[in-house]
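Worked problem 6 (solution included).
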Amino acid sequence: MSAQDSVTADRRRQFAEEARSERPDLALLCLLLGAEAGPVGPEEPRPVRPGDASPDPYGIDAAQIELDRLAGLLPHGIRTPVGWAGALAGLLGERHEFGGSPADYQRLESSLLQQVLRRRRGLPILLSVVWIEVARRAGAPVYGVALPGHFVVGFGDPEHPVLVDPFTGGAPLTGEEAGLFMAGATGARLEPSMLAPARPLEIVLRILNNIRAWAAARPERTDVSLWAVDLSLLLPSHPARLRYERAQLLVQRGEFQRGAAEMEEYAEVLDTIEPTTAETVRHKAQAARALLN
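Solution. The predicted structure is:
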C-alpha cells in the first residue's frame, strides 16, 4: 500500500467510526469528506503528495480552529432565537460575507467545508453547516432544516422555528417563502414535518448526493464520483443501489475485473427480491469481463 493509500484508508476509517458514534460530529464528518479532494492550499485543491510536510495538509485542524474563532466573535447574553439569528447574520452574512450565488453550484469546492470556510462561498447546505457549527459552539439552539431543493437553518423550537437562509447571507425566511421553495422543488405543499431538525448523517448524505450529481455531469470526474460513493457506503444507512453505482464506476475507469465482481455481488443481494433485475446485472457483469479480452 502506498503512503497516499494508507492516509486515505486511515481517514476513511475515522469517517466510518465517527458516522457510527453515538453523537456524530457534523463538522468532523464534513471535513473528512472535504479531505477526499486533496490537500488545501491557496489555489485549487491539488492531488495528495506522499511525504507532504504540512502538519495539517487537509485543513481539518485549521477549519476547526476557524469555526471556534468565529463562534468566539458572537456577542454574549443572547437569549432568543431571533437574537441568535440576527447575531449570526451580522457576523457571518455581513461582517464575513458568507453567501452564495448560482455560479457556486458549478464548483466542487462549494461542497467542501474547508474550501467554503476559505472562500466564504458555497452551496446552501455547506453554508448552513458553517452557521450550525459556529452557532452550536456558542450555545445557540440551532439545527439544519432540509427543505427539498434548499437547505436552511432554524433556531429555537422546531415546531415554531425562526428560519434563516445562509445562502443569502442569513435573510429571514418566512413560512410562505419556505413553502415557495417546496413548491418550486416538488410541486407539493410544505408540511410541518418537513421543518424537523435534520440529523448529522442525513446532512452528510445529502452533501455526498450533491457531489455525486456534480460529478455525474462531468464524465471526466469519475474519481470524484467514486470517492463520494465510497463515503456514502460507509454511512450506517444508505441506498443499496450505491453498490451497483460503484461497480459501474469501476468499469468506466477501466477496472473491469473489480467492477464485474462487484456487480455479481450486488446481483446476489437482489436475487430474492428482484430476480429479473439481478439477471440483468449479471449480464452487465459478463459484458464488463468481456472488455478484458
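Discussion: The first helix runs from residue 3 to 19.
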